[in-house]
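User: Quick sanity check before I run a bigger batch. Here is a single chain. Can you write out its predicted 3D structure?
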Amino acid sequence: MYSGKKKCHTAKVQCIINHHKVILQVDTSIIQMHDFKLFKRTNPNLTNAKFILADSGYQGIQHLYKQAFTPLKQTKKYPLVQEAKDYNTLLSKTRVKIEHIFAKFKALALSNNNT
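Assistant: Done. Predicted structure follows.
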């Protein structure tokens, strides 16, 4: 898929990480695919997970896993109330740790490709 932001072709990468910051599963797709579609296609077994933190690309995951949490979205008709904004802030503060692991993983993958 072509990324206008990066000005090059990119691959979709999905990682599943446990609470010990250990990467359990890595899935990739070289075709253009929505995050949640890749998730459903790879069908990870997360039934024993106590909770699942996902970004907004995984809207609908709550229908598969009741223990899943994604950011709440506002619409023109229904703006977010303060409680929902607080929830999103807390989720974001927790997910940033996961994003740091993704950054390290990507840096490692890039360094391995350049050697």
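Residues 2-113 form one domain.

User: Great, the batch can go ahead then.
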